[in-house]
Structures are given as structure tokens and as C-alpha cells.
Amino acid sequence: MPELSVKLTPFEIAVFTLYLATVIYIGFRSGRKGKESTSAFFLAGRRLPWFVIGFSLIASSISSEQFIGEVGWGYKYGMAVANWEWLVWPAQGLLLFFFLPVYLKNRIFTIPEYLTRRFGRLAGSTFALVCMIQYLVINLPLVLYSGGFVLHRVFGLNLYLAIWLLVLAAGSYTIFGGLSAVAWVDLFNGALLIAGGLLVFTLGLFAVDGGFTAIVGTGERAHLFLPADHPELPWTGMLAVAFVMGGYYYSTNQFITQRCLAAKNVWHGKMGVVLAAFLAIPLGLSVTWPGLIAYALNPNLPHPDDAYPYLIQTLIPVGLRGFMCAVLIGAIMSTIDSLVNSTSSLLTLDVYKGLFKKTASDTHLVKFAQLSGIGLLIFGGLWSPMVGTFGSIFSYAQDCWALMLAPVMAVFVLAIFWKRTTTTAAIFTLFMAIPMLLIVFLREKTGILASYNIFNLSAIIFVVSLAIIAIISHLSESPPPEKVAATLWFPGMLRPTEEEVKLGYPWWKRIGLWFSLVVLCFTIIYAIFW
């Protein structure tokens, strides 16, 4: 690949340096009380307001994986890649109306803690193990590698030096202040992310001859849904992305749902999800459409992953490139800090305390979490070069996610909706997730199952997992109803909680009203670009 490095002016370097100083200041200032207790360190004292939750959800979910990989896929395939941002509202609805009420009712610290209450300690510990493997082998190395790739291409830094600079920068305030530091930094980075993305979109409208119509393109590139026989993005696979992958990502993923668990109250937790759903509209313009813009400007780039560095080099005017570099690094750091905080939460609360140190003090647990955070960052930095062995950054992420999460999502769906689901069935299916990661590597290196679309394969594994859970549950002893009652969803959870009624929220603050507007907005978008 050619080197698409950008030489920043002294003013742009100053802007970028100011950004780094601001982030570190926000992180250390907001996290200064984060070490007082486990609640303060892991859940920000359950004090997060809805707007912080919403922006933090967005900032944590977008990183260099999207700015390099998703933009690259947008460059290669067109509009259909926007489904990763615009077809998440069904998954957000699952979290909002079904999973989150159950989680908040049980006042859990981590998602594995829910499985511990539903199925026992072994189930919770197994899921914690699955999550840590996922975060350490997939997410954290991916973000560090692709972030280092960005710094390498934009600043000309050595790739591995860039990776370790990210480890140091994001790790400092995260390890110091816990979730409070992470969430408030994410608010700042999330606002930058939306602003920077819309800037690129607007500049692209003026730079491309033919404007919006030319950017959208023609044929398959202009549609959100592609034929069922499309090798990469069939519409059937997009449904799997919406409900299976998206459902897992938003409803059972610790580093996303942790913000909702830290909400001031139920309303703030739910409204944060609604805000994130609205922000998905400009988010699609920010992280998918740049690929379409790059293709309209130059359809002959040597590699799709070069699309975003190419835009910074050719589209962003001198004087603004320092700001855009800050947007990129902000997205990267927000994902790194979230992953480290969430993984250390699982390791500390579900593994260390849950299995070995049940009577440990809050001070001891916070110290262990900080030390484990350092170890996790070091491991992620060492493993990250493995990501470079895959052909596409975004492809690596999606392949790993698609197969590994399908059995897990099946467990959670039946855990909250079917009281007959047994511990044996849940644990067996959770363990299925681990060898799925091996299939991804074998598929990449040997071609096994390569003829099957990865997203369709995810849907098949999900359905098979549901069947396995049902069969094993019928063959094993049913759990006592009184033991599982508190962990099940019931229709009454759709009504406003007693807490919401007492606080007297008027009709214009009703969650159902605002989420209905979300659905309406996306219905219009899909009616236009289906």
C-alpha cells in the first residue's frame, strides 16, 4: 500500500496537542472520586445522566475499526454498509424494553452477574471468561492495531510505537478514575466524533461533482439491502446483523451496557439508549458515507482501508486536519478506555471476587482492578499485530463477532423470556462460543466454510443454539419458579416504573414516544434507500 501520510502544520499540531491535554484533564478530574468504592470505580457511583450515557454509548462503539475498516467497506460495497449504524435500532429496542428493565431491577454490576443470579456461579463465570476472551483477542487488539495504523498513515509514526502510545494515553486516566473518567471523556469525544463526521460529509458534498446523487451512486451501491445471493452483504445477513449481532452488542455486551447500569435512575438509563439511537443517524453519515465520498472522488485506491487516510490527505483543508486527527484519536481512545474498564470489571468482580476473594474490601478490589487494567493493556498491545494478518480490519472484527456471539445471544434470549431454561443448557451453550473463534481462524487460513456468508452462518448458529438450549432444558430438571422469578421479563415492565411515576415525568419525556420517533426516522430512511 502507498504511504498516505499527512504533514501537519504547527497550528494543526497545536490543535491536536490541545485535544490530548483536554482529554487527560477531563479524565483525571472526573475520575478523582472514582476510587472511593467499587460502585464509584465500576459504575461511576450510579450517577450518570442520560446525555452522558447516550454520547458514551456512541463514542465507545466507534473507533478506528470503523474509521478505517467500515469506511473501507463503504468504499468497496456502498450504501449497504450503513446498516451497521442505521439498522441497530431493533437491537436498541431489545435493550430498552426487555433487557434493561431486568438488569436495572436486579441492580447488577456486570452482565455476567445477571447470569449468576439466573443460573448460578458457573454460568456467570463462564460468560465472564467468554467476554474476556472476546475483548482481549478481538476487540482490544483490533482497536490498538487499527488505531496504530491510523497514526502510522497520518503522522508517519512507526506502527508499533503508535500502538504503545495509545496504550499509554488511554490507559492513564482509565486506570486512575474508572467508569466516571471513561464516561465523561466519552461525552467529549462523542461530540467531536459527530461534529468531525458531519464536517467530512459536508465537505464531500461540495467536493464531488454531482453532490449527493453522485455520492450515493447507482446500482447495488445505492441500496441498503442487497440480493440474498450477495457474497458479503445479503439482506438475510443484514437481518442477522440487526437482531443477532446487534442484539448481543447492545443487550449483553458489558462494555456497552455498563453505562446504562451506571444511570442515575431507570429513566436516565433508558433515555440514554434513545439518544444513542437518534445519534445513529449522523453517525452513519460520519463513518459509512466517507467511504462513498472517497469512492466518488477516486474509485481506484489500491486498498479500501486507505479510504479515510485518503480523505484526510485530499479533502480536509489545511488548518482543520489537526481537528480531524483529534476526532480519530478520540474515537480510538474512547473504545480503548471502555474495553479496559469493562474487562477489568469482569476480571475483578466476576472472577477474582466471585471465585477467590469473596470478602475482599472495596479498596482491595479497586486496586486489583487498576493493576489488572495495566496487564490487560500490555496483553492487548502484544497481541495486536495478529490483526494485521487478516485481509481487512473490519472483516476480522465482523467474522469473529458473528460466530462467537450467536450462542451467547441465544442463552440471554431464553434466559429472560423462558422460565424453563436450565443451568445445564445455558452453560453448555455458553461454552460453544469459545470454539467458534477457532472456526474464524480456520476459515481465514484454510477456507473451511468459506462458501457460507458469515452473517447467514451467524443466524444459523443462533437458531441451532436456541434448539440446543430447548432440548437440554427439557432433558434436565426445571429450576424452581421462585428462584428465577426476579430474573425474568414480564409484560408489566413495559409500563413506567414506580420510580418514574413518582418523579412525575410529563408526556413529552415518555420513552415510548421518543423511541417511536426513532423508528419513524429510520422507516423513512429505509423507504428511500432500501
List keywords for this structure.
mainly alpha, 23 helices
Give an account of the 3D structure.
The protein is mainly α. The chain contains 23 helices and no strands. Helix 4 crosses helix 8 and helix 9 crosses helix 14.
Please give a quick description of this structure:
This protein has 530 residues and is mainly α. It contains 23 helices and no strands.
What order do the helices and strands come in, and which of them pair?
Elements (H helix, E strand, L loop, with lengths): L9 H21 L7 H6 L6 H12 L2 H14 L5 H4 L2 H18 L4 H9 L1 H35 L3 H49 L3 H6 L18 H17 L2 H8 L4 H22 L1 H9 L9 H8 L6 H36 L5 H22 L9 H25 L5 H24 L7 H22 L5 H4 L13 H6 L7 H19 L1
Helix pairs in contact: 1-9, 1-16, 3-9, 3-12, 3-13, 3-16, 4-8, 4-14, 4-18, 6-11, 6-13, 7-8, 8-9, 8-16, 8-17, 8-18, 8-19, 9-13, 9-14, 9-16, 9-17, 11-18, 11-20, 12-16, 13-23, 14-15, 16-17, 18-19, 18-20, 19-20
End-to-end Cα distance, whole Å, is 34 Å
Oligomer: single chain
Order of helices and strands: HHHHHHHHHHHHHHHHHHHHHHH
| Largest sheet composition | none
Radius of gyration: 22 Å
